[in-house]
Structure formats: C-alpha cells, structure tokens
C-alpha cells in the first residue's frame, strides 16, 4: 500500500468519519449476521473465536473496520479462523479493512478464505471510493474458482487486469455452477499500449448456466485512454455470446466505447429467439450513430422481450430513438409477446388496444402496422 493510500486511511480513521452511506446494501440474505468490529478491539477475540468454532449463527461476516480491530495478537489468527470456518454464507470486505492491509496481507487473506468460500453464496468487496490499491485480477479469479456455491459477486473497486489476468479470470468463470449475478464495473490496467483482449472473459461468462445479470465496465482512467489508444479489444462474437444467453435478463456494459458494428451485432442477437434480455444498459458509449439505432429498431420489430435500452443517441438519431422506445413500451406491457398467443381473439385484441393505448396513438399505429391481421375480418 502506497504512502498516499496509508495517509488517507489513517486520516480517515483518526477523524472517524461515517462511511456507511457508501457501503452496499446489507440486506443480502435473510440470515443471522454480525457486524464484526462494531465495538472496536473489544469484539476482536469474539469474532475470531466464533469463526474458529463454526458458530451456526454466524452466517454473514462484515469486515468494515481496520485489521487491528479484529486481531490484537497476530494476523495469523484471523487467517486460521477463515480456514476453519464452514458456516459463513455472505462476506463483505469493507474499505477500512481492505485499506489497512498490505498487498502481501491481502494475498494471504484471499488464499486463507479458500476454505471459507466453499460454502460462500454472496461476496461483496469494497465501495465506490477509489482511494485504495486495486484488487489483483488473478487473486479474484482464485476466489471465484474456490467458491463453488457463490451466486452473487459484486466488486465495487478497481480490479487490475493484464491479458494473463483476463485469461485466468475466464478459466475461473467458465461453467461456474452457481453464479447468477456478477458486477465488476471497474476493470483497470496500467502501463503499456498492448490491447487487452476481453474476448476470453466474455465468452467464458456466456457459459454460466444460471447467469441472470451482468455488469462489466472499465475504470475512468482506462476509458479516458481509449480515445488515444486502442487498449481494449472486444469482438462482436463475444458480445453476441452474452446477448444470446437464455438466462440473462440484465446486461450492463459501461464505457467500452462501442461502435455501430458492436451495436449491430447485438441487434442481430436480439432479433433471434435465443435472447431473453429485458434490460440493456450501455452508458459511456458515444460512438454509436443513427446506423446503430436503426439496427436496434429492426431487431425490436421481432424481439418481444427487451423492455429498456440506455444508450447515447446523437441528434440525428433522435427520431429513430423515439421509434425504438415505442417498441420498448409495447414489450413492457407484454402486448407483442401476447400476439403469439393463438387463444387471444381479434376482438379481445381490439378491446385491449382501446383500453391500454387510448392516450398513445403512436403505439397503436406501430402495433397495427406490424400486425395488420388484427384488423382483418
């Protein structure tokens, strides 16, 4: 940990400022929990002892204080407690705990938690504050690999990656049996101008059999460099493999500087029957033009599931964007999907249109234009 990071940490500890508002929501699992370190050093031995004896009521562990609040005798005690526990189901590593560790201690903590993570279901690391060193991508991969029951992974902190780290993460994510929600919004790499190949990571995540939501993004420093160097390589094939996942309903891809080619590839996948995506969130991608929006409009004439799109639209694409949003409203109300139901009569459809769209004539026009058989005798 750099001198700057340590000074920031100790100054914050001295001032004892509240940081609860920046932490992720704590109601993750309806289980008994303990806010470890809530009373400072007085509770440190209690936490370690409960971990060691596998207290059945200690199913959630929140480490959000400095290291010395938990272990007064030796750092090794905490590592041994992690290794011997099989009851904890949810772990949150807060910024003050994480910030008080050296890089070597952090690596030891991740390694020691391997046994604990056998039964782990929820893991959150850090907050949106970015004053501490990044988590090594390789270490994160080892955690994911050992946590066979992990279903929620949220890392609200920079994750440093190289091409080797990305490949290792891909190997650890591939066909993970339990992961349902992944949030890694701050992938970060430093130094050099070699493009980082994101394809292995995306294609591996696409193999997850239970994946429901995925959020991946680049850190602000990396995004700023994209305008000068091509530091991020992401193929249309890798994107399409994510979109066509039959279990994925929410996909957020932040600040990847996507082009029309990427959006057109996603639109092609959305038009297929394979996609069940409902929310597509693409902020910070400002290269998309009218061509990309037109491809989305064409896809939505066939897609009955997508309900929300967040994407930059230039001035010349505003009319196409409005047309896209009409189709999204139809999907949100389930009207286009209902058209596939052969049991719904034309009379019922006309009544539905009159009741649901009396104040939305544009939606009525689009619905009837795309499905003229509704009005046929």
TrEMBL record:
<protein>
    <submittedName>
        <fullName>Uncharacterized protein</fullName>
    </submittedName>
</protein>
<dbReference type="InterPro" id="IPR032675">
    <property type="entry name" value="LRR_dom_sf"/>
</dbReference>
